[in-house]
Protein 1
Amino acid sequence: MKIKKSLAISETGFVFDPSTGDSYTLNPIGLEILQMLREGNSREEITGTVTQAYDVDAMTFERYYFDFLGMLKQMQLVETDE
Amino acid sequence: MNKQKLTIAISGLNNVDSPGPGIPVIRGIRESEDIEPRIVGLAYENLEPGPYMHGYVDKTYKLPYPSEGVDPLMERIRYIHEREKIDVLIPNFDSEIFVFIKLADKLGQLGIHTFLPTLSQFEERHKSNLPQYGEKYDIRVPDSRPVTSFGEIEDLVRQGKFSWPLLVKGKFYDAYLARNAEQARIYFNSVNAKWGLPVIVQEFIKGTEVNVVALGDGNGRTIGAVPMRKQYITDKGKAWGGITLDDPSMLEFTHHVMSVTHWRGGMELELIRTPQNELYLIEINPRLPAWVYLAVAAGQNLPVALVKLAMGQDVPVWTHYDIGKIFIRYSYDMICDLDAFRKLSTTGEL
């Protein structure tokens, strides 16, 4: 999944979509994941990074991860050809 | 650099909860780097805030309503011109544009410059003509019909030409979403009482409303255009907050409208973006909108460009504006002396 290139993501977790004018606030882990997605990391790489850094197993994490991706899609924050 | 001194007469000073564009237009002009304006306010009501905003308006004159006819209005403008030597006149109400288009030649003979759409440009973009407009210029528009009785709305639904919900609109302002016949009857009566007939019935297009403020040079060129989305909308449907967008498709849409219609003057395009990313034109307002100062702040001083075009000066085309600029409207209680109110009420001048 490719995150829209035009998204402005601040260090504080504020996300601005300049094509719709919508803005969102991410918590720190959401911000970390969005940045990893933007850098083109795969699901396996993101899962590996998160499960190493935090007290969570891969299966639990991925459940929330896919929810998160669904939300990004619903909010049209991904490239439309995805 | 010597600034050009110009006396500019401006209406639309009702800076209220459904604001006219006058004060934002003046604000832009006052920020000009090469024009030193004297602003003559043109007011219709004693309690329009503009006349009392002395930092913006130097002198105000009351005008007779356009509905009273062309002659009394022209007579009043002549009187004002004798005292003020108006260089440019910018009408800002939809309901007065028609009259000023009619008067443009006479005003020109007096040395008062305007920069308005032609009569046919103005007429063909009426809400009631939208389907023909869309067809003529290859622009996607919702189906719209002028109606003169509530029964006609019921007939259109019965014949399957429209379905609920639908929009009930006034010919100049106001739009209501009617979800059933009962609501449509209430809105029809309310719009009819306020704006008269015809009332416009429009197909409801589901999506997000987005807007563009633009200025056309009358030869098909877009001098400037800034797209915006309302972020906070009042119960009157007016933007109380908005943000500039990075949306090339909206600009392309605007350039198309300008190039095929050769629009002359300021305009506001009201568009709906559907979930399928299609843009529908729902209305063209034939003037700069009340949120035009957002465009000024984003880098396109369209009011100044309009003044220069009216004066026959060359104006470069803008291609850039700041994305993510936000406006947030606020209300503010001015305290005025009774004497000022008395002057405007009794002498028609302040």
Note: Residues 4-115+333-347 of chain B form a domain with the Rossmann fold fold (CATH 3.40.50.20).
Protein 2
Amino acid sequence: MSALGGGSAGGEGINPTASVIALVIVLVSLGIAFALAPATLIPLIGVIIGGVLISFGVHFVPVGGAPAAMGQAPGIATGVAMLAAGGGLAGLFGGAWAAEMGIWVALGAGAMGGGLLMAITCLMVNVVYVYAMGIPAASGKVEKDPITGDTYAGYRSQGTEGHGLPFISYVGGVIGGILAGAGGTLIYLELLSVYEEALPSVLGMTPEGMSTLAVSLAGIFAVGMFLVAAVLTAYNITGTIEGPHDPKFKRWPRAVIGSSAACAACGLVAILLVVI
Amino acid sequence: MEEILFGIGISALAGALATVAGAAEDTESDIGSQGDPNSQVQLAPQMGYIHRIYNKAISGEPPAYGLWVALAAGIAWALMAIQYNAILALIIGSAVAVFVQGVYATTAYLGRTASLAKFEQPVYIDILKSVTTVTMAHAFVAVFTTVTMCFLIIEALGHPFPLPLMGLVWGIALGAAGSATGNPFYGKERQYQNYPFGAGLPISASGDIVRYAEAGQRSSLDNGWFTSKGAGPASGICFGLIVFFELWRTILFEPFAAGWGAVIAGAVIIIVFMVIDRMVETWARKTYGPYTTEAATEEEATA
């Protein structure tokens, strides 16, 4: 029953040595980018912030995994990285569409795209639980919903740790989708700006001819980095999480530090592709 | 005005395609047992319950569908680049992707089931023959509708992503929506049909899945028959709503307030869904009531 117990592999503390190593990786990556092409420094910082947003956002998403599929634990019955990727990439779709309208509108569109996917998915999860399975929502981690004040003690069926999506988990899912969507879009926009600038001179073609290649490269790297940040965070969560009220939520600084280092290294590779 | 009407029409068509895709995806994953409930299918023989349920969960649904839809989109894109008819290219792309899905399903079933040999779980060749093709048929419907939807979004609505990347993004979203919505119904409601309705499964009952049907042993095809009445349509509605609202809010509201219109519309739609969710939650609490009387008393005292 390790998935239910939420095994505390690694605990909640921050490992100072690992954090210093992560910081060094971030600084070295920024230093290399600055030394080779100073103009890429800001985009790389944007990529790192995008990774941080994704990593932080994933902690909000209520993921119940296999136990949720049997109504044994609350949350959405799928994997952490899977669900976050679905939400974040739907956000990336919206953000990329609005890229011409400026960075802030594109970020807003990306955030809302991710939030919308999560809002609809979480609603349908509750609809299935309530109308198809006759099971009300109940949290296993708190006795009282921090937003609505609903009590859960009587609403957990016997032998389970709760089920469905309590309102706090629903709100967490939407916030997670919004942050992940904005993070994925930010990575895409920053890489797109680098590629649109550098590709025409690297390959000696017109900017118009390069736009499909720039969009494709930026999109693929954004998807890849999204998965890097989301999977790292999934390891930090270890199994299932109910949302912002779950004690595991407190582990977020560790994942944020790890994701910033990973995204710095990946972002540097993505930028070096056209700069060298 | 005509452009907006055309855009809304395409959004509706894309939403309809997505609805079919979501329903087919969930039914495929339930017949093939690819979602999280497959943990029980894998666990059952270890608890002494030998069964005839398919078992192909070597990957989550989102990455699997990301692969298949991106593959179909990539092949269709390449064929269109050499002047193939678009519809033919989409069909050929989907067909090739489905053959990959068939290879995946076959190797996954053989591999996962063979790993249970020491618990005396046999590999049934007749299951391999009868169920694999059914999952492939459902996967074709899901992949073809998704890749057609992606094609429409690019060609008719002008999204900048190339078709393979669009296929990857929406394939992953399709798997996420389908697995999230459909898994509890397949897991609790079908695999543990002999446990009381209206309650979660006690943790101690894990592995005791239903293995017998009205006549003989239960097959995964029976599971598809059952879930296509609940989880399949629900997943379809979920994915259809996601695609429709994502496109609709952009087409209709992006011209307002320098693009902020679509963002505000998205926020409003999210709040509306949040209110509906709260109503569903409250309805369930009032209608079904608490499981234990002690808690009911406690509830009244709190109120």
Note: Residues 44-275 of chain A form one domain.
